[in-house]
Amino acid sequence: MTIHNLVPLVALALNLTLLVLVLYRDYRSRINRTFAYFLGGLAIWNFGVFMLRASRDPGRALFWEHAVFVGLIGVPVLYYHFVLLFLNLTQKWRRLLVTAYALSAVFMVFNPTALFIRDVKLTEWGYAPVGGPIYGLFLGYMQVYMLIGLAQLALAYRGIQSSFRRNRAKLILWGTTVSLLGGYVDVVRAIVPRLEHLYPLGIPANALFALLLGVAVVRYRLIDVGVIAKRVAIYGGLVAGMLPLVIGLGIFVETRWETKYALSLREDLVLAFLLAVALTPLTRSIEAWLDRVIFRKRYGFQEILSDLRGRMGSFLDVSRLADTLVQNLVHRIPLTHGVLYLYSPESGEYRVARIVSSGAIEREWTPLRVYHPLVRWLREHQGVLVTEEIQLRRGMAEALAEAEADLAEMQVALLIPMESEGELLGILALGEKLSGDVFDAQELELLEVLAGQATIALQTSRLYEEVKHSNEQLIEADRQRSRFLAQFSHELRTPLNSIIGFSRMLLKNPGGTLSPEDEGDIEAINSNGLHLLNLINDVLDFSKIESEKVELTMEPVEVAPLVAECLRSTVSLIRGRKVRLNQQVEPDLPLVQADRTKVRQVLLNLLSNAVKFTPEGDVTVRVETRDHELLVSVVDTGIGIPEEDQPKLFKAFQQLNGKVHLPLGGTGLGLAISKTFVELHGGKIWMQSRPGRGSTFSFTLPLEPVAVQ
Predict the structure, then answer these.
(1) Global pTM?
(2) Average per-residue pLDDT in the chain?
(3) Burial class (CB in 10 A: 0-12, 13-18, 19+), 95
């Protein structure tokens, strides 16, 4: 079994593989079924040729020659039908197509007779047919319909707008040309006896023909015909350049050493091709040079997308993100146009966020509703939607039938979903490349990656805008709160001050006619009025602290008189209770630089808390100097504080649930305000407590002046 005999078997395997792939892709598609019939004809032809070359006698060879034409007779009309389906011209050229099928049926009838093939003859490459009168008519019919299909495809080529469709058409044109050239070589071999030694190219040419058409139907995105042409030209040029060198070297060896040059032309070609393959690094350099000189792409596709991917994460503004993404893709690839749709929850549709056009496409763009067929398809199917593939896949064509008019107006090549966690946030619609090249599989994958990163950047931008909007609302709410509190305090303080003042006057009047009950009531009015005023002051102070509007008025402060003043103010809180107030102040204390009002408020807060949580016993204020600091402690013998509650003490709006009845409540702000005031002075505040043993609250103030914070 020689390689020559195995070539038809290889072509047969290729035909059957393509046939399975085409039907698996979409067996309901008319163009796929027609191409499958075409492949079936080629498969019968190749199997017949394989058996023909394996035949050892003329009778068996004649049988297989007739079998070859059972497959071959249907090839021209099926090819022509395939071209018409591809161009959507079956109705226009219906009569010509019907005529082709009728002629094919006639030739099929005459095939088993001597009118079609009279006999076979043995040649250098095996048996060949001796045609009858109708054989020549069939060859003419075959050439005519192949050429008509080629001509119609070539005429329609320039009018095809889609680069993907142009690439498919180019694949079919190349395949047809290769098939015709292979047939012409075989015809010339049969006519010119001296050329019979040339290898018959019919089978290899039609194997390549079937392969190119199959790629156009099944996976045309994997192959750019321009790249194929470029590489064929490079290798062809190298082989053509090597062939004279190989022949010249053989002649030199023959004359120099008086030997006979035994290699044939065919072997010279093989040797030249092997030398060309050995020079693959040189071919890559030539290819790179051709890219620079002939194609002159402004930017490499990968470099453009890599640059964009690096920039996506730096935008926190949705409009800038949309503008950068679409504008760079359109101008740097470059494309006819690009449109970015973003979902708007308010309107329930995908609105146009950015449109960029190179001038090739100018139209009005309308939003896409959430129930639009394109939106439904992109939401349900992951990956890029190549509009040219819609007609190749019956299921897709049926699902998007209602969107056909919109797609025709949009004139886009790709629709790329911007999806995150099952939610379609946007759609990136891209037009054709201005260069006319197709988006190959690798480029589509890169675009998907870019869309994914753009989606993340979009989510980040939207989150940033939401946070920014929330902050603006919070600032406005804080402004309104401050305005309300200022008005609230003014409206409450005026009557409260009157109530407190009049009640104090009544209590101090020695010659009054108040009964003991009346005096008790007035004392309650005065005490509750002071308590309410303190609550109002606490709320206002805390509001200032939150707004960072607290200001310290620093001055030299004598601590001992301040402690005595605070103790006198606390006396009213222990009236009628078995609680004693004590002070232990170190003599000759130095002056401390502080805000007297703020320190007084801190000390009053600590004394108020100590008295409140001491049903009976002692509350003592201790003041001493320690390590260049003034240490102030308020010690009580009250109920103490459980360990689990102690971390809450200096937090705002935290109140402890004591086991004793507390006559006066509070806001839970006193200790939080005290902590802030102490820290603003550069000091620290802390506490120590044991349940049932009492508590000690301490704070420090620096004895040296500190910068006001």
Answers:
(1) 0.51
(2) 79
(3) exposed
